[in-house]
Design goal:
Length: 218
């Protein structure tokens, strides 16, 4: 019967071994129709195959997971994006549910059963919050700022810090060192802010930082 067909899933993660592990976890109830190793691939495959659910990593090469999710939810809205990430900090979670339009967020350290529950939930039209990060969203909601805030292209506090450092001439490696984060995380922030603010180059990012007084020009 049609109602019992497997959930069609696209796996988007830049680690092949991790994708293989995810495939095994999902095998009982899902059909993995394709895999992507970067954000651009994920967007292209989503448009072509229109899977039910896209399991999306955040820190991938290219445009990054959240930027890819924004494009998918805009261009292929029938696809439900489920973030599966190592990051559990507030800004990632809130951006995923707000500007990126994702349907769910699971942290990689959660049990495998959590992923299956999340895929089922988003496929049925519900939103899914990993128990690990649910308190983040609940705390923000209680504070009066909805997690699905308007889709305005406003950089987050962390993105403003990244823009400031780039405006001062810092490389991605130097940004990571200055902020105490990994190079991969710094690159993800850089990619996300470029996509969000439609900044095509480093020079454009510098101009944005100057225009919005993130850096001082003496």
């Amino acid at each position: 019967m049609e109602n019992h067909r497997p959930i069609r899933v696209l796996l988007a993660d830049d680690h092949r071994i991790f994708r293989e592990a995810l495939r095994m976890v999902l095998a009982a109830e899902c059909e993995v129709v394709a895999e992507a190793s970067d954000g651009e691939q994920a967007v292209a495959i989503a448009a072509q195959l229109k899977p039910d659910v896209i399991v999306m990593d955040v820190g991938m090469p290219g445009i990054g997971g959240l930027a890819a999710a924004r494009r998918i939810t805009r261009e292929v809205p029938m696809c439900k994006v489920l973030v599966l990430s190592q990051y559990d900090d507030e800004e990632y979670v809130l951006e995923a549910f707000g500007q990126a339009g994702c349907a769910g967020y699971v942290v990689k350290t959660d049990a495998a059963a959590e992923l299956l529950s999340a895929v089922r939930a988003v496929h049925s039209g519900r939103q899914y919050l990993s128990p690990t990060i649910a308190p983040i969203v609940l705390a923000r909601l209680r504070g009066g700022a909805p997690a699905n805030a308007a889709h305005e292209a406003n950089p987050t506090r962390r993105e403003r810090e990244v823009l400031k450092l780039i405006g001062e001439g810092a490389t991605t490696k130097e940004v990571a060192q200055r902020l105490g984060i990994s190079v991969k995380t710094a690159q993800a922030h850089r990619d996300n802010v470029k996509q969000k603010l439609d900044l095509r180059s480093t020079a454009a990012m510098v101009r944005y930082a100057i225009k919005h007084k993130l850096i001082r020009i003496d």
